[in-house]
Amino acid sequence: MTAETATTAAPRALARQRRRAAAARFWREYRTHRAGLFGLAALVLFALVALTAPLTVGSDVQSVTDAPGKPLESPSLQFPLGTDQFGRNLLGLVVWGSRVSLLVGLLAAVLSVAIGALIGVTAGHFRGWYATVIMRITDWFLVMPTLVLAIALATVMSRSLGTIILAIGVTTWPTTARLVRAQTLAVESRPYIERAKALGGGHWHIMSRHVVPNVMPLVLAQTTLIISTAILAEATLAFLGLGDPSIVSWGGLLQDAREAGAVSSGDWWYLVPPGIAIAIVALAFTLCGRAVESVLNPRLGVSR
Amino acid sequence: MTAEATPALVEGPAADPGDTGSAAGRGPRARTTTAYLRYVAGKLTGAAVSLLAVLVTSFFLFRLIPGDPVKFMTGGRPVSAQQIAAYRREFGLDLPLWQQFTDYCGKALTGDLGTSYQFRAPVLDKITEALPNTLLLTGTAFVLYTALGIYLGTRSAWRHGKLGDRLNTGLALTLYSIPSFWLGLLLIIVLSVGVGPVPGLFPTGGMESGGKEGFAYVLDVAHHLVLPVVTLVAVEYGQTLLVTRSALLDEMGSDYLTTARAKGLRDDLVRRRHAVPNALLPTVTLVFVNLGRTVAGVILVETVFSWPGLGGLFYQALSVPDLPLVQGLFFVFAAAVIVMNTLADLLYPLLDPRVGR
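Structure tokens for the assembled complex are given below, as produced in the milestone run.
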């Protein structure tokens, strides 16, 4: 009995041990990229701010009716970033907006990368007409101006967060699909795939046990990079008035600022904070993605 | 629009014989020319299929919209049933969907993109009116950001790891992460409206002040062009810089560079005559692939600076929403990117003999 569990547990323990060693090796490599560490620190900070927002500012910060200040006050001790056209505390709004921007960025990127990975792996695994058709469609999406397509989708659907996530997700996947397909083709030409096939492994077995674990690192790096695209796209759609007007997001704040005439009256303090927040988060995700990419694939030469 | 796009496509091969001639003059025999023509035919067919797909997509995508287009047209005013029926007949909305589709395709092939709800004018007229303004803005920005990106990317890669490279890449990545519309708004506040002691140096928007003629008019337009172009260049050059940099880094370890140095060539010559031309090959394709991103940038920058171009028109059409205009512009933007990509595909084998032969 005990001997039996030992033999079944041993390979699993071995696998776990190897995985832990790989993660430690990854972290040791990652630590040498200073820009990546900076990005990671910024992300942790923003994630904390977003997660603790209900405690620090509370959801009544977005209430228009009982706003604490007068409309369009300049920054003061009471309102460090000033107030918006309804007299709401801008600092609170920027903190609260981080939740929506990060959530949309994450979910849209996960959706986009999931579609891309699924299409990439299947197009790389099943050759023939399926791959040809799928890759033609991918190429077609690849040359389409992403934002124009996302705008078109957001226009024809109802104004909601789900729409924005869907619009970004279904328009940004082609690059991932191409990358994943190339990696899948590389993996599938390795001898161990032939061995798995010879031992009777089916399509599902080969894709889930051999291909997916091998493309996962690439998918991870790609997700990080896509999140920054998605956050910028969310801000852009909200700025164009395609977001849900009842939800506070960084792009929405910028649109409010423009509509309140902050540009012509020179109220720079209204415009600067949301934009800086967008830029820092997008930059942080880009830096992390590039660091992960160069750890996993030093030949890419991104941050040599 | 297809009627317009097709000549542009036909121009590809029509302009090519000269280039092919020069390529053939350099050595390869007639067989390579045939191979190239076959390659061209394949690429053109692909582009035509893509354009057709865009046409079909743009029709069905904008029929998904919930609600009655007539409601948007009347803007919520109370209207009689007869008026609604008249509107429906005027815009062909009373026909079955398949008939609307065949009508739409038939008309699109002759260059008729329908009538704008908002302006009560043919969509094609609105587009041709705005197109030159967009071309002026985009063209200027495209030339500048490509040149700047390639120049800085080359310098960065040549001295990679040094302080200059790190600053360069850092700045490019930062500007790349900034929303273009936000940068535009900030530039307007600082340089047009003026903050504190800084006076407004540039106009806040538009393309001309009006009432100017001749050379004064050109200067006036150039004055209006500065801020939009600066914004576009700032957010777009980073991509070119990074692509050029990593392409050149890939070439850096190559043997032919060692040979060139061993011949005693100056560092500068090794870079300009040997390394950069090779590194530019992947850059060319990516510059064109990234045009899709530039289209997005143009829409935002034109909106922020009230530039009377296609992007500004798109924003106006979106806020109604003026479906025929949105649909027409969607087609124009997609077609522009497809046509540019096809041109890049056609040029590429002429630049790099290893491709497509």
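The radius of gyration of chain A is 23 Å. The domain at 49-62+79-300 of chain A is CATH 1.10.3720.10 (MetI-like fold). Further analysis is deferred to the final report.
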